[in-house]
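for the recovery benchmark. tokens below, seq after
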């Protein structure tokens, strides 16, 4: 079943904390709203959309957003009635970037991948049970897919970047992830049943890269390759998206080799930069 709506779910660790830590539910709800606001990008999001996607009532959503606005974490454009990331988020992000950001070493790799393949290229990072897109670089081919952009999140195993990362995790981590998220099949369709996801992961490890044949948006294909940290953990992924006919059986192997070579290059850069 193809999907066009991107849901930013509450990470599983946050859901577990809600049951054990006093006040954790309010913090988890506020954090979920922050993720939704940032994933909406520069256009922002209306309170009704945020409430629906967060699974909250409109009054609760408005109350939490107002509290976040008082702290500078979100901003409200009263002319258009939309909520956007606030200035305090920028300051916090600037500080955190020195520890977590790899865009400085990865940007020209993503650009090179887009140039070599002529498709849209991306760099995503693993955050808990999700992937978050960090960088997007457009290819020269004029017909593009708009499934992914900076800040968009997907559960592991759904988009091609998340399939690539999940495939190279230890088997017990994959088992635990699928056990934590029985809702994935209901949310993303029968192509994301545990059995079919496991089969896709096996195919990914066998070939070295993931292929997503229009599983999110019909007619929009993707490919992903894991990027590893110094300890050999799949922490990031490079990916490509484009229209289906650009990912023909004849072209897939060449795209895969190019994708893997760029992923290996970025893995080496990360290892060298963090010594």
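predicted aa per position
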């Amino acid at each position: 079943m193809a999907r066009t709506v991107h849901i930013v779910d509450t990470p599983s660790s946050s859901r577990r904390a809600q049951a054990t830590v006093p006040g954790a539910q309010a913090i988890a709800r506020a954090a979920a709203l922050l993720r939704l606001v940032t994933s909406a990008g520069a256009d922002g999001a209306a309170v009704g959309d945020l409430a629906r996607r967060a699974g909250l009532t409109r009054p609760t959503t408005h109350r939490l957003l107002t509290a976040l606005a008082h702290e500078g974490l979100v901003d409200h454009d009263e002319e258009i009635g939309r909520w956007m990331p606030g200035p305090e988020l920028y300051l916090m992000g600037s500080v955190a970037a020195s520890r977590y950001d790899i865009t400085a070493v990865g940007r020209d790799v993503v650009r090179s991948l887009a140039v070599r393949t002529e498709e849209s290229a991306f760099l995503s990072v693993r955050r808990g049970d999700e992937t978050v897109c960090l960088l997007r670089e457009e290819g020269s081919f004029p017909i593009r897919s708009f499934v992914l952009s900076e800040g968009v999140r997907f559960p592991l195993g759904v988009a091609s970047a998340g399939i690539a990362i999940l495939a190279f995790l230890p088997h017990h981590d994959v088992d635990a992830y699928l056990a934590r998220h029985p809702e994935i099949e209901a949310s993303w369709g029968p192509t994301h049943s545990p059995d079919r996801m496991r089969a896709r992961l096996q195919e990914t490890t066998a070939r070295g890269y993931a292929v997503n044949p229009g599983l999110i948006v019909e007619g929009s294909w993707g490919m992903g390759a894991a990027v590893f940290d110094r300890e050999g953990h799949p922490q990031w992924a490079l990916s490509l998206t484009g229209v289906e006919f650009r990912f023909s059986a004849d072209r897939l192997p060449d795209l895969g080799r190019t994708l893997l070579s760029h992923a290996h290059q970025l893995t080496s850069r990360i290892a060298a930069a963090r010594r």
